[in-house]
Amino acid sequence: MRKGYIKYVVIIFIVALTALGVTADFHRQSEDRRIQEFDVERFRETGYTDEELSLFCDIAFNRDGERIRKWETDLRVEIENIAELGDEAVDEVDSVISILRPLIAPLKIERVSEKGNVIVHKNVELTLINKPRQKPTYTNGIARINEATDHSWNINFAHIYDGPTTGTQTLMHEFEHILGLEHPMMLYEYYLTIGRSSIPQHYSAYGDWFRFHRMPYYISPREKAVIRMLYSPEIRSGLKRDEFIKRMGIELPASPI
Ligand SMILES: [Zn+2]
Predict the structure, then answer these.
(1) Quick check: 205 pLDDT over 60?
(2) How far is the CA of 176 from the centre of ligand 1 (A)?
(3) What is the CATH number of domain 37-248?
(4) C-alpha 183 to ligand 1 mean position (Å)
(5) pTM for this one?
């Protein structure tokens, strides 16, 4: 009698768990559908040129999964090693924040002294940060964001490591990464802070070095537009690149790579 009772409890438990799993899965799928069926007309009201739209398709989608990854909560920037830094380094972070602030509205970005969700490590030796299994590569800066899960592509935590000899250009480049931007795959005639070549790691010729050092601290209006487009409320994390292109009716030029 008792054995039979336990059997029923186990069966009911399994049925309930399965039902819960199916419901959660159904909820996930319908949420994903809502993300894909974004409001195209309202997004168009953001205002952008064709050039900015194709740049958006190139750099706004995460390479891994070809989906949008962005913040949906306010950003609190904390400089981890602030006690070791001079005013200039802190001012540099504040300058980047003030450039980005109007671009990611309605989200807010501010500098905090504790409980940050964007941790900036400034003027640090980058070779020590590479994972042990990775080939040590020379780099000016590193940006790391939290991994996406099965049902969330939100960015909610990030680290920025900035080398000791780099300029504000690198810091801005890494900030663009943690907002969800990727390096471009296409070639552009204009300068891009998020472009790989914007921060030459090996100066192959004196001319390259000279051109780079003459470059004023600058973020192109096209990149500003892309950040504004990415942070428009119609675009949500998880939006797939092919769905976006289909719904927008975009014809993209073939990739040169
Ligand atoms: Zn980069």
Answers:
(1) no
(2) 9
(3) 3.40.390.10
(4) 6
(5) 0.83
